[in-house]
Amino acid sequence: LRLDEKVRVAVFKSEVKGVFCAGADLKERAKMDDAEVGHFVKRLRNLMDEIAALPVPTIAAIDGYALGGGLELALACDLRVAASSAKMGLIETTRGLLPGAGGTQRLPRCVGIGLAKELIFTGRQIDGEEAASIGLVNHTVPQNSEGDAAYRRALTLAKEILPQAPFAVKMGKLAINRGIEVDIASGMAIEGMCYAQNIPTRDRQEGMAAFREKRPPQFIGK
Questions:
Q1: CA 157, chain centre distance (Å)
Q2: What does the pLDDT average to over 30-51?
Q3: Does the keyword Lyase apply (predicted)?
């Protein structure tokens, strides 16, 4: 995906009805020794980091349970859409664990420190409506009879992104992701560097020409 220039948006969905991702298989984990558990979680953390670093926008379509590592997967995405009936939570403390694949870092950046601490300390599960109210998900929708309402909403959101200039969207994502980690002056510098890369693109010239000629732009990602 990272190397395929034809990819504009990546949507993460489950093929299992009622479950987005239920997290690690604790029966499997119980058979591992301490070293194996550490290696497993490190690989999982690296996977989430790679998903977060994808250059194109990513959307998690949460149509069911997103628990533990499953919610960490959704948090690694840029945007999240949930069915109102979906259940989400970093439940690790209820199993004698703590989030180890980015949850302690990405959840506070998403909902704020106080709420993140409360959710992690309690291991509480929340539904799609509450998730939307605290900013954990961008949109919540009533579940349908097919069980894919969040996926359908995610596709609608993806289709809003598709017509926009691909390189500009990528630079926007990069500027946000890098800028949020630093002070605002450094963030402004990052934005300036990303903007400078976008100036010589053919898409920027096309956008200006389309505006002048009062027609829809035809972006090519160059």
A1: 13
A2: 90
A3: yes
207 is catalytic: no
Q: What is the rounded distance in angstroms from the CA atom of residue 62 to the CA atom of residue 42?
A: 24
Catalytic residue among 10, 22, 24, 165: 24
pLDDT of residue 24: 80
- Asked whether residue 25 carries a pLDDT value surpassing 90, the answer given is no
Among 60, 82, 92, 102, which one carries the catalytic annotation? 92
Of 10, 72, 83, 128, the active-site residue reads 72
What span, in angstroms and rounded, lies between the C-alpha atoms of 148 and 150? 6
What's the sign of the alpha-carbon dihedral 68, 69, 71, 76? positive
Catalytic annotation, pick one of 23, 68, 69, 103: 69
Say if domain 10-162 classifies as CATH 3.40.50.2300.
no
213 catalytically annotated: no
Q: Please tell me the pTM assigned to this model.
A: 0.93
CATH superfamily, domain at 166-213: Lyase 2-enoyl-coa Hydratase, Chain  A, domain 2 (1.10.12.10)
- The domain segmentation of the chain, as residue ranges, is 10-162, 166-213
Active site residue 69: yes
User: Is 24 a residue of the active site?
Assistant: yes
